[in-house]
Amino acid sequence: DSGVTQTPKHLITATGQRVTLRCSPRSGDLSVYWYQQSLDQGLQFLIQYYNGEERAKGNILERFSAQQFPDLHSELNLSSLELGDSALYFCASSITGDGYEQFFGPGTRLTVL
Amino acid sequence: GQQVMQIPQYQHVQEGEDFTTYCNSSTTLSNIQWYKQRPGGHPVFLIQLVKSGEVKKQKRLTFQFGEAKKNSSLHITATQTTDVGTYFCAGLAETSYDKVIFGPGTSLSVIP
Questions:
Q1: How far apart are CA B112 and CA B99, in angstroms?
Q2: Which chain B residue shows the shortest CA-CA distance from A4?
Q3: Are A45 and B100 within 8 A, CB to CB?
Q4: How much is the mean pLDDT over chain B?
């Protein structure tokens, strides 16, 4: 158990819908990362937050947005969902953001029908 | 932008054989990390290398960081079925403000 929690575990929705994925980092970790992993694909970095502020951005679509709240939990919002958005979404946390090891949550599996 | 590549993409070995995966970055790295993801699981941190030419061992796993800090390797001696999974390297570029880039991973299958 990494100490990072993600909810929900599974999500099934329809095209055009909007969903919110939630992540609680390990106690004491200030940085949260979001990744997308499609079937048999690597980890695509989406976005990173550090202590409530956006720190780095990857290949995140405009339909996706994220935020980190004062209690350091983070939410990833996916809107106008398409079939291709079906993937495993991982959240990871680290103490700071300066290249420290990342602790990954169990992931949320999103299926768009 | 920075790119991190890994070879091979897939490797099938007989149990007991050795296995090596290579990681190459287009830019010089401050550090490199290795993660393992078991089938159906999430990535788990294995190790971090920081110094040029650094070599670290964890039981049957040997990690190396290249002298130029642009490449790294993971070698597993005498593979076991428990080694099955995808191994990712992740590099932090010297010029990057803590944006770690993951390689595409090497998927290892071990035939008992």
A1: 39
A2: B42
A3: yes
A4: 93
Question: Among A100, A108, A109, which would you mutate to test the B interface (most chain B Cβ atoms within 10 Å of its Cβ)?
Answer: A100
Rounded percentage of chain B residues whose pLDDT exceeds 90: 85
Q: Residue B105 and residue A42: Cβ atoms within 8 Å?
A: yes
Q: Encoding tokens for residue B82?
A: 């428990």
pLDDT in tens, A27-55: 999 999 999 998 767 889 899 999 999 98
Q: Per residue in A57-92, pLDDT tens? A: 888 999 999 999 999 999 999 999 999 999 999 999
Q: Tell me what the mean pLDDT of segment B10-23 comes to.
A: 97
Q: Does position B98 have pLDDT exceeding 70, yes or no?
A: no
Specify the length of chain B in residues: 112
* Cα torsion angle, A38, A39, A43, A49, sign: positive
* Residue A100 token pair: 């420290």
Q: Of B2, B78, B64, which is closest to residue B34 (Cα–Cα)?
A: B64
Nearest residue, CB atoms, A43 vs list B44, B48, B88: B88
Per-residue pLDDT, B3: 87
**Sign of the Cα pseudo-torsion (A42, B102, B68, B12, in order):** negative
Residues of B in contact with A105 (CB under 8 A): 42
* Closest residue to A42, CB basis, from B42, B92, B102: B102
d(CA B82, CA B90): 22
